[in-house]
Structure formats: structure tokens, C-alpha cells
Specification:
heterodimer, A: 265 residues, mainly alpha, 72% helix, B: 290 residues, alpha/beta, three-stranded antiparallel sheet, 12 strands
Chain lengths: 265, 290
Amino acid sequence: MSALRMGLGRIGIELKQFFRDRESAVFNFLLPMILLVIFGSVFGGQELGDSGITFAQYFVAGMIASGILYTSFQNLAISIPMEREDGTLKRLQGTPMPRSAYFIGKIGMVFVAYIAQVTILIAVGVIFYGIDLPTTSVAIFTFIWVSVLGLIAWTLLGIAYSVVPRQGKGAAALVSPVVLVLQFTSGVFFVFSDLPQWMQTFASLFPLKWLTQAMRSVFLPDTAAAMEVAGSFELGMTAVVLVIWIGIGAVLATVFFRWTPRGAN
Amino acid sequence: MPDSAGSAITAIDVTKTYGDFTALAGVSIHVQPGECLAILGPNGAGKTTLTEILEGYRDRDSGEVSVLGVDPGKPNPAWKAKIGIVLQQASDMADLTVGETITHFAKYYPNPANVDEVIGAVGLVEKVNARNGKLSGGQRRRLDVALGIIGNPEVLFLDEPTTGFDPEARREFWVLIDRLKSEGTTILLTTHYLDEAQYLADRVAVIARGRIVAQGVPDSIGDRNNAIVSWTNNGREFTESTAEPTAFVQQLATQFSGEIPQLSVRRASLEDAYLELIAQDRDTNGGDHS
């Protein structure tokens, strides 16, 4: 009865709850697709400068990076406080299931939800906005390692942030402003190089800016690197930043995670 | 695995305070293997605090505690596998079905009970594909019990298990618990229902204001030699608890010409004894905390 086996068993249970809960399915899973359709319909055909790149192409990269944030950070930072409040965590604490199995279940759920979301986002982009897909194995490899590191970092940060909302009910109100501010400042809704410099500096402290930039390296032609602030996609730096945030997230999640609401003992 | 004193559950002089409020002021209980102890007491008396210390959810300030020979303050997975916990009413995992939930929880335990048998025992066969969130209050409670017993526990904690049950569901639940008892499960039950304690418990402990005020077999609690005489006079109801009901009624009869209106004489029940104990505690300690 290993922790790993229990954790793998929890993935299925977590996924059922993720997709059956209507609010979570809309807010964490469908929202990026809705945004893609809206932004793609309004601005999708516009060309960025005379680069030959459409905004839709630029925006798909940002939305896929945001998908990492939605399925991991936003999802967990809202659902864990609810599980803490409704007694799910207290019940689990009373069983022999170890904490690690619970985390394995969450991480597995996040990965599966992300894969499903990215598949649909790309399909929508290709079918409706004529997005070009990456063809080189280098681009596909970049897509995979950036996704994996990004998901791990944001999952850990979501687990850590789950102690911030005191109640399950108001959790979304404390989580979505963080997500929105990061999206606006990290080059998801606007072209990053058009943003004021202080905003660029602020966004560079957090992982989302690096994720969107790396996703652009996957979905935009190599010539687009010249449009970046640094003149390149900075993949090496992206890896460094993500690994640092995984370290920070691991420490915060381990120190701050709790089964019961504050003040319960 | 009983401890050195042979008990499945032992608590000696356990104290717990929250700020200025003393939840437990030195509580001692012993539960023998296979025994069912019911803890009775008003809201706020310390029942849940005591239970949650024994379950490993809360720290104690002082005192000795042992459940199956292990200090619940230092729990380990092997120990948790031998403990079954039914918390106060829950509403979690609303989007899973009954069958999914019980099947999944069985995987947490090294020696689980048969899933279909447990579903049958708690009477949820027809609800096996229903979402937990769609169950009635009583059905939901039976699911909680199913999750408490799926691991084949040696010790089962039941915290107000039948709150919200209709009388028939409560009877069915008692039969289920009786069966677990006959299989040797040690049970610690907290309840508001005195008839439930009378039916299920081998012994009861009455807790008030964080102290045990009486402990023993249900028929020995309080002054059970007394009888309760009740009657009416000019529409007002009177009751008297007395050790000599025959003499009392003879004396009472002299005040009436003919029949005493609405006369009844009955043995004091556990409920009468319990209410008297709680009232006495209030009188001797002054004020009302609950």
C-alpha cells in the first residue's frame, strides 16, 4: 500500500471532481478557450508591426502559458480552501493516506487537465485562426519542458497560496486578481514589448512572463525573437527562473500547507 | 492491541483550554477492547474536544492518552489503519458517487472490508450510483459511517452519528452498530440521544463543563432507584422524583377527593438521571456555560 499507488488512485478521483464541479470546469478549464475566441475574433487578424505575425498567433502562446496558471495555480488555490472548509482534508487526515499521496493526486490532476486544455486551445487556434503549429523537434521539446517546469512551479505555489483564503467561499476573489494582474503585465493580453518598462520589470520577477515568452519561441517563427525586449526568447534564463520558483514553491508549500482551517486547534 | 492496562482507549487527567475557556478540566476514561462507551453531555461540555484528542486531530495541554497503545498526538499510518472515524456531519466530496467514494477509500487501508458488503450494511445499495451531494441527510450520514468502517477498524469513533435520522433509520443504524460490536469493534460514541446511549452503550460517561460527572453502566447512572411521579392539579403539571413512590402517592391521594388527575408513576430513565446530573452540575458551579 505505497504512497505512490494511493496517489495514482487519487488522480482519477481528483479529475472526476474537477470536471463534475461546474464552477471549476468553467473557471479553470473553459475560460482560456472563451478568452481565445473573444480576443481572436476581435484582434486575431491584426498583424504585429510588419512582422507577418498575427495577434492570434501571439495570443495563443500567451493563452497556453495562462492555461498552466489556470489548471494549476488558480484551480488549487481555490479548490484546496474549499476542501479544507468542507471537511475533505480533515477526513483524509484521519485515514492512513499520507500527505504525499494527496499531492501526487493534485499534480496528476493538474497535468491531465492541462494536456486536455492545451489540445483544445491549439485545435481552436488552428481551426478558427489559422495558427501555425511548431514543426521542429527543438520547438516541441521546448514546449514540453517549459510546460512541465511551469506546471510544477505553479502547482506548488497554488498549494502554498491555498492558505491565504480563510474560507472556501471567498477564495476565487483572492486568487483571480493575482492571475489577472500577472496576465496583464506578462504579455498575455498585450504585446510584452509595448508595456511600460516598470511593468516589464515587475512581471520579470514571476514565472508567467517567462512562460509566455518561452511559448512564443514555440509558436512564433525564429524571426520573432527580434521583437522581444532582450532580442531573444531567453530560454536559458526561463529555465533558471522556473527552477528557482519551484524551489520557493516547494518550501512555501511544505511550510504553510495545513489540513484544517486556521484556529481549528 | 490493548495498552499495558488492558484498555483499547485510555485517557488520564486530560486537560485542554482555548484561551480563557476550559474545555477539558482533567478527564479520565477507559474503554476495554470490544466495549462501547457513550459520552453524553450538553453542547460545549467538551465531548468533541475529547473525541478529537483521542482521534489525533487536537493537541492536549496535559494528561496521558493512549489508543491501541499509541499516543494519538504522534499518529502513524499503521495506527490510523486501525482507527475508524465518523466526524460530525459532513458535506464533502459532493461530486463523487457513493460507490466511487467507498471503493476509493478502501484503497487507503491494508485490510479493508468488502466494499459491496459495507454498502449493503449501511443500506445504500440503491444509492450506489448517486452523487454524494444528492443524498438525504440520513443517507449522507450512512455514507460517513461506511467510510468510517471500510478499513475494518479495531476502534471506531462515532461523533453524533444519527443526528437528523428519522426513527426508522436510527433503529437500522443501531442494528448496524450492534453487528460491529458483536464482531469485537471497540466503539466510542458521542450522542445527544439518551435512548441511543441506553441501547448501544455498555457504559456511559456524562461530561459537563469539561469534567466527568458520572460514569458506569447505563442503568447505574444517577439516582436510578428513584421513581418519577407526575400528576396535574388545576391544569398545572407536577413531577416528583422519589425513592418511595408508594408512600408518596398515598400521601398525595389525601389531597384529592377521588382520582389523582393524570397520575403516572414510572422508573427514572437514563434521560431523567442525565437531566438531573446536568442540573446539579449547574447548581453547584453556578452560571451556565453551554
